[in-house]
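Many introductory courses stop at the sequence. We go one step further.
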Amino acid sequence: MVCFPSTEDRVPFPTHVLFTLAVGVSTAVAARSDLRVSPRAALLSRSALALAMYLLLVLIPAGLYFYLFHGDWFLLYVVDVGRVPSAMALVACLSEFAVGVSGFLVGAYLVRAQRDQVAGSLIGASLAAAVAVMVLSLDRLAWIGSYRQFHGRFGLEPFGGSLMQGVLWMGLWVLLGLAYLLYRVSTRPRAG
């Protein structure tokens, strides 16, 4: 009998991207008092810079860790990581950055238009979709191995070991960084 770990312990690539979208919108919502009074473009705000630093220094490196060390699992065994050109991995990293920044721009538009509830709904929908990916992929995430092992159904190990430790430590790093990001952009004194 195989025990399946809880779904919140696993972070596949689609979940990571949906979480990145939610982070972008959340950053704009947290910085709403600053964004509403500033006449400059949202991308030129300090909160956009803070988000970019968080994406480049915390969130994208966490995703790269999983891609480099547990790539087939991270991609839900849909693609053999050994056959993915390195340029495609770079495009995926840039795309994830673009998703976070796009989420921020959408969030900034919504908070400037006094539509905080819509922004909150977008955050909730992104996070719900991220969890749904994990729940729907439970049979894939419960096993650790290569693309060939998964599709050949041999040599797989139950979720645990170094992968579980990576998920826990990277998850802690990402969540603590996010908490600090949202705190800083929501409490930063306004210029002037």
